[in-house]
Amino acid sequence: MLSNLIKKKAEDKGLSINKLEKKAGLRPGGVYNILSGRSKNPSIFIVQSIANALNCSVTDFIEADETLNNKKQMVRESHISWDSELYFICVSYLIETLKNKKVVLAKEEFMKLADEIYFYSAKVGASDVDKRFVDWILDKSLNA
Q1: How many CB atoms lie under 10 A from the CB of residue 45?
Q2: Which of 28, 38, 53, 87 could be cross-linked to 24 through a Cys-Cys bond (beta carbons 3.0 to 4.6 Å apart)?
Q3: Has residue 76 been placed in a domain?
């Protein structure tokens, strides 16, 4: 479960929840709400910030989170060969989807989302973007 993995990794790094929140650049209570179950569906951007602060990948959390078991096919970025054409397709579809939904993201948020979409698509061996995954991850990040 996501909360258990965050707790364990924070303990391993000797970080209190408050220190982890600060290191991740989150508001007070951001991590605590996940650990206590108050935040049942944290945004991908919050999870990415926590992963960065703990020197791990979002994939580590996704694999541990029971609510995302169907997304276990993601792997660490270093295990995937770079496919610039697939990345371009993923970015193009993300732009199209954001325009259709009339959503504007900050550059950092957009790039993190584009990377997640690319690495998921690349892992499953797709030559095209998984449009259902894009819709799922975008809805998840916008509704958090």
Answers
A1: 18
A2: 53
A3: no
C-alpha 107/C-alpha 74 separation (Å) is 23
pTM over cut 0.70: no
Domain that holds residue 92: 81-142
> What is the DSSP annotation of 24-55?
HTPPTTHHHHHHHTS-SS--HHHHHHHHHHTT
For CA atoms 142, 54, 4, 76, give the dihedral sign: positive
List C-alpha distances in Å: 86 to 91, 110, 115, 134: 9, 17, 11, 14
Does 106 lie in the same domain as 50? no
Residue where a domain stops, chosen among 19, 47, 71: 71
CA distance 30 to 53: 13
85 and 61 within one domain: no
